[in-house]
Design a protein that fits this description.
Layout: E1 17-23, H1 30-42, E2 50-57, H2 63-69, E3 73-77, H3 83-93, E4 98-101, H4 113-125, E5 130-136, H5 143-160, E6 172-175, H6 176-180, H7 192-198, E7 202-208, H8 223-242
Parallel strand pairs: 1-2, 1-4, 2-3, 5-7
Antiparallel strand pairs: 4-6, 5-6
Length: 250
């Protein structure tokens, strides 16, 4: 299959940005979100050449039909496989050298993408391998969900020492090749900063906007995530202990 023509304007010499969005029962959120992304990346002064890849993860509502009406690339899973699997599908299909991920519920603000992209390009120009991510400073979630997130972040940081206060923010920019080099497992999206650093990729977080959900319902609960999160954390800890980066001298 030939390359799709990128959407947007000048690329400043850094190639195309692939916007990858996993979706599961997000009907009503998709059309405005895609419109916001195009506006943010096509604005005078930004004009970032891009493609938008929507991955419908086995939705049972009108998500797939709405996604196809946006004109973005749409890939569908026959049944729900989870957010990490949807990200992997989208990133494998992406045609850009760089990828930005964000949630399909509209809570991540596309207006933050150009600023994070600029930061990523500044680090890249210095020769550094980098992942730039958002840090939600004013969470628009319930008190219970904020408490759960803070607790999980503290436990994760104590074990993995990834230096990130908000690994749950899905707004991240990184090289496609760096992600595909990671050891993949279900729920990897929660541990990307630690795993990127394991491979020698610098990670930098910047404050970003966070918005209330306007359509649909959250897919996350406490008890359905507790036990699997413990198993994932132990697995990520094991992976970090098993990796040694050689220092190449010639």
């Amino acid at each position: 299959m030939g390359r799709l023509a990128p959407q947007g304007g000048m690329n400043y010499g850094f190639g195309m940005l692939s916007v990858v969005i996993p979706l599961h029962n997000e009907a009503g959120n998709i059309t405005p979100l895609v419109a916001e992304i195009r506006a943010a990346l096509s604005h005078i002064g930004a004009q970032i050449p891009h493609e938008i890849v929507l991955v419908d993860d086995g939705s049972s509502d009108g998500t797939q039909a709405e996604a196809r009406l946006t004109g973005a690339r749409v890939i569908s899973h026959r049944k729900a496989c989870g957010q990490s699997a949807a990200l992997l599908t989208g990133i494998r299909a992406a045609q850009g050298e760089w990828v930005v991920t964000l949630d399909g519920d509209g809570q991540n603000d596309p207006a933050d993408i150009p600023r994070l992209w600029q930061k990523a390009m500044e680090f890249d120009a210095s020769g550094a391998r980098v992942m730039v991510m958002g840090e939600r400073t004013r969470r628009q979630d319930s008190a219970a969900r904020r408490w759960m997130s803070r607790t999980a972040n503290r436990i994760r940081e104590a074990m993995l020492h990834d230096g990130v206060r908000d690994t749950g923010c899905s707004l991240k920019i990184f090289r496609r090749a760096d992600f595909l080099a990671l050891p993949f497992f279900d729920h990897i999206h929660r541990y990307m900063p630690a795993l990127m650093r394991r491979e020698g990729v610098m990670t930098h977080a910047y404050p970003v906007n966070h918005r209330p959900r306007t359509c649909g319902v959250s897919k996350y609960g406490f008890w359905d995530r507790l036990w699997v999160s413990i198993a994932d954390l132990l697995g990520a800890y094991w992976l970090l202990q098993r990796r040694k980066l050689p220092e190449i001298v010639g």
